Amino acid sequence: MQLHTHEWGTGERVAVLVHGLMSDHRTWHRVGPALADRGYRVLAVDLRGHGRSPRGPYGTELFAEDLVETLPAAPEVAIGHSLGGLALSLAVERLQPRRAVYCDPAWSLARVGQPVDPALFVAFKRADREMVRTFNPRWCEADVDLELATVALWDTGTALALSAVHLQDHTPEKPVVPSLVLFAGEGFLFSEQAAAELTERGFEVRTVPRTGHTIHRDDFDGFMAGLEGWV
């Protein structure tokens, strides 16, 4: 499947951005231009079932295969958030970026505390402004507006395809390329034990304090600082 792609910048180095569940390329509306200012040509996809990309069957491997089919091989850096981090990790051996950054990746939802079933996010399809603001108190009004717009286009079948019997631990055994894992200090996927395990497996691990799951929207400056040396 060829995914819808949005582009910022004209640099010779390529950076690719992969969003999380319920979102689309617009979640990177500050990150994309910031990377373009650093000399990158930035490509941000809409995963299948999100934004302007086609609908179809859903599954972790399909999300990954779409990245390989759509994006140029061997980009300078690839950044994936949540579901995008999971899809990127499954595609990274074929995509072969020089560096990979996984932002609060949805690798092991079934292992951290009580299981988090993605089917729970279907309820967000009916979200209004008050609900978005309640769950994301640090967001600016522009991000609240964008969330409402992206959720309106989102196919809830993407969440159901990751649910129940499809819940798996996808935590990589080791990084395929030099890799950074950026955890949210107040996110629901983070644990000190997980950070220690990933460090032992060869990942660099950093935490952006006082941020929830969507780090780049909770604290843009903190997110960009967390990327220093990787972009």
UniProtKB/TrEMBL annotation:
<dbReference type="InterPro" id="IPR000073">
    <property type="entry name" value="AB_hydrolase_1"/>
</dbReference>
<dbReference type="InterPro" id="IPR029058">
    <property type="entry name" value="AB_hydrolase_fold"/>
</dbReference>
<protein>
    <recommendedName>
        <fullName>AB hydrolase-1 domain-containing protein</fullName>
    </recommendedName>
</protein>
<dbReference type="GO" id="GO:0003824">
    <property type="term" value="F:catalytic activity"/>
</dbReference>
<feature type="domain" description="AB hydrolase-1">
    <location>
        <begin position="16"/>
        <end position="219"/>
    </location>
</feature>
<dbReference type="Pfam" id="PF12697">
    <property type="entry name" value="Abhydrolase_6"/>
</dbReference>
